[in-house]
Amino acid sequence: MNPTEPTTFQIIRDWAEVLYFFSGLGLLGVASVGLYQLKLAKDQIESAKKISRTQSVRASFEAAVNECNRFSEKYFPLSTELSKYVKEQKITFFDDAYIEESENGFKVNYSNINKDDLKKLSEKEEIIGKLMNGIEGFALYIVSGVADDSMAFHTLGKVFVEEAEKISKILPFTNAEQDDCKAIWGLYFRWKKRLEHQKLQIEKADIEKKLAKAKVEKFTAIGT
Hints:
single chain; mainly alpha; 6 helices
């Protein structure tokens, strides 16, 4: 055997090193593909989440629009009819009863009401019941988060607060349970505070404008 010629063992060893090297490259390639697939799956998940959030927001806006339309078309006429009756019958119940708020909660004060007004209002029990159910259903959609709060408030915030206050005053004299109106009260106080905050913001802006226009002149006292 020529001493310069590689032995069988050397040949096997050399090929083994070559195979080991390429196997390392293969594993690196597999790892790279795996990482790419993982990133791709992550991106797909994030994309799906964004689509889901977009669809959820869209559904929330649509629910708010539908509820506002339903309230306007179905329950405004009932409220108008009740208001007309109250005016014709010279009923002062809704003005005489007032809501008292405290740290412990709230209550309706009936000390100044005319009991004859309750008899007159009982004539419109069916309308009051339908109106109450409509306001409760509307409030449930908003409080539960199914319908978008901001859009609904922008559309019917002030109207809802007025109607909810009216219904809440008559509630104890109907067959409805107090628990039936938790959603009404919850949305009533949420939106009432928001309306009050908006009012204060407007007043603040008005005061700032007046202050900006006001000119303060300095006068030097005589003899100084």
